[in-house]
């Protein structure tokens, strides 16, 4: 058990933080939601009612879709784009999808390589793009769920104020939806761009997200 925890400590650490913060968000969101309900003379909701509401899941999906968009774009962009001196970049002469030998596929695969790497045709094609496809799929799914949740919440507010509801398609072109969406996107793009540039000049000893402390600023694609 101790070996399992040590070998999976990074994923377990973030899984724990995720669970704690999601539960915390649900309780904080319930209190905020009920305060708004009482201020408008409407009944409060139990915690269980709130976590099944469009208010809660609209907020959750709003954050998830922006995070998965960030990683989807970063995975795709770093195939072809480089940043001199950045630890987040490949070597300047290593742009593109690289050779079969570099990627250890087909005849260059080892006995412990995943079987799709040894196979050919559609299996290898699917596997060698699986990370981008799955991350992009989660982004699309969470974006759709966010839009549907926010749309339902918007229409509930419209009904509460005796105003006309709108269709999902109409809601997608409203400023309300895109203001909330782009608010998250710009923060993700800023974070990725910042770490790409900061890793040129700044260091963190022992972290694979940093170059070795003594590495020159223009050394690209190394970890320390």
Would you summarize the structure shown here?
The chain is mostly helical and 224 residues long. The chain has helices spanning 2-7, 9-39, 47-51, 54-80, 100-103, 115-118, 121-128, 130-160, 168-172, 175-201.
What can you tell me about this protein's structure?
This protein has helices at 2-7, 9-39, 47-51, 54-80, 100-103, 115-118, 121-128, 130-160, 168-172, 175-201. Helix 4 crosses helix 10 (175-201). The radius of gyration is 23 Å and the shape is elongated. The chain is mainly α and 224 residues long. The mean pLDDT is 90. The protein has 10 helices and no strands. The longest helix is centred in the first third of the chain and has 31 residues, at 9-39.
Search tags:
224 residues, mainly alpha, 10 helices, elongated
What's the topology here?
Layout: H1 2-7, H2 9-39, H3 47-51, H4 54-80, H5 100-103, H6 115-118, H7 121-128, H8 130-160, H9 168-172, H10 175-201
Helix pairs in contact: 4-8, 4-10
Which structural category fits the helices and strands?
mainly alpha
Tell me how many strands there are.
0
Question: What's the rounded overall pLDDT mean?
Answer: 90
**Share of β-strand residues:** under 5%
Helix percent band: 55-70%
Cα-atom radius of gyration: 23 Å
């Amino acid at each position: 058990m101790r070996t399992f925890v040590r070998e999976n400590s990074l994923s377990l650490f973030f899984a724990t933080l995720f669970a704690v913060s999601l539960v915390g968000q649900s309780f904080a969101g319930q209190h905020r939601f009920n305060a708004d309900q009482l201020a408008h003379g409407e009944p409060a909701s139990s915690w269980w009612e709130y976590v099944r509401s469009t208010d809660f899941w609209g907020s959750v999906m709003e954050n998830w879709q922006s995070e998965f968009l960030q990683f989807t774009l970063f995975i795709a962009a770093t195939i072809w784009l480089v940043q001199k001196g950045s630890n987040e970049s490949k070597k300047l002469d290593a742009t593109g999808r690289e050779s079969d030998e570099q990627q250890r596929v087909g005849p260059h695969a080892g006995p412990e390589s995943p079987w799709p790497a040894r196979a050919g045709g559609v299996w290898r094609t699917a596997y060698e793009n699986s990370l981008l496809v799955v991350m992009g799929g989660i982004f699309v799914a969470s974006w759709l769920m966010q839009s549907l949740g926010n749309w339902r919440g918007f229409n509930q507010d419209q009904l509460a104020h005796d105003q006309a509801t709108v269709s999902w398609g109409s809601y997608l072109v409203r400023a309300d939806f895109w203001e909330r969406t782009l608010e998250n996107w710009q923060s993700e793009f800023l974070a990725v761009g910042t770490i790409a540039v900061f890793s040129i000049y700044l260091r963190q000893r022992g972290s694979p997200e940093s170059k070795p402390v003594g590495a020159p600023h223009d050394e690209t694609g190394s970890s320390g």
